[in-house]
Here is the input.
Amino acid sequence: MKHADEYRDPALALLLADKIARAAYARPQYRLMEFCGGHTHAISRYGIADLLPANVNMIHGPGCPVCVLPIGRIDNAIELVLQHPLTLCTYADTLRVPASDRLSLMQAKARGADVRMVYSAADALRLAQEDPAREIVFFAIGFETTAPSTALAIRAADRLRLPNFSVFCNHVLTPPAMSAILGSTQAQGSGGAGIDGVVGPGHVSCVIGSRAYEPVAEEYCRPVVIAGFEPLDLMQTVLMLIHQINRNRHEVENEYTRAVTREGNAMAQELMEEVFVLRDSFEWRGLGEIADSAYGIRQKYARFDAERRYGIARRRASDNKACECGAILRGEKKPADCRVFGTACTPDNPLGACMVSSEGACAAHYSYGRFRASAAAQTAGLAL
Amino acid sequence: MCLAIPALVVRELEAEEAIIDAGGVEKRVSLALVPEAAVGDYVIVHAGYAISRLDPEEALRTLALFAEMQGDGQAAAA
Ligand code: SF4
Here is the structure.
């Protein structure tokens, strides 16, 4: 596959590993957070952590859209579709996220609610066009990668004057979350969950540009390197971060130049600006309330806003007590630290959101890491 | 949901849509956010929408950097 295979050369990966090992001499520890779930997935899948020296640690970040969606919002969606004669459309991952009272959207569907999986916002819009007698609500989630397509759907619905289409908007923004994490770890000092550098989101940056992270890097004095998703991209990014850390630099650099520019996708940014407005605050699972971290729908497009149309009220709901997703999303714990990881909680039967999506830290670790880790422990003579 | 691989634009359709080939799988996606993308280009696709057109020159530059590294590595090993 072009633009992928070239970045998977094992010999080059080993060469980079060697360079990293030689560069990582200046500090006892280099703690690097990969913000994005796509990177978490790639790191597990290609065993990147095994190629790094013991003092270079990768910490999972909160960049998995279904993982950071608080349970209250899923409860809202379930309630909406159970109480109104409407069709709720959403992405596949959202369907399986455990909500309150042992429910999920999938189970709501089994109880007769009209919940449908769509591949894109355009699919939901098409449904509304095809069936004018039916109210269609698109349960929109995701970062700046999917927000532009939701904005496009809302604008198209406006132009088509579609009366039966609305969006339950849950789009969240990555720079404020990165600030929240760096801010809280800074407050704890360099120990604990202290983070020395950040592997910056690749695909979000296609949209918002690498410059979106410049204020964050500046404020918290931490380097950010925007990375591609192939093994060599990630290895090169780690090397770039270590070089910056060694030199006490904290700039935004871009390893993924083939897809990301400093400015990003201007058209997508204009669309988001046109349709969305920043919410004063929004709750993230694990991170709590973060100011200016999510999009609501502008007054101008209020009739497409499901929150206004159906009077959706804010709900607070707590996570499953056994689940450590919150601490994992903050970079404080690893999946294996959770008591129910791989036993009561598996991808087939997830207890927490981090086990649902392939970008979730627990799912990635379960699919690619768990057995390797136990095999390694067995060779080391440890009883597991 | 955010996992995306580079996909080749195979055929343009009407209404800013196109058929892409993502690792052997053909799919219909929207090019509305990347109107400059044309047949033969590679794009990053997210939830049915192309969000970025891959810049082949930048890709070559990154690969050249890796190739140089390999040259250095071999020289060091020799
Ligand atoms: S293993 Fe399951 S329950 Fe434990 S933190 Fe991960 S998702 Fe939550």
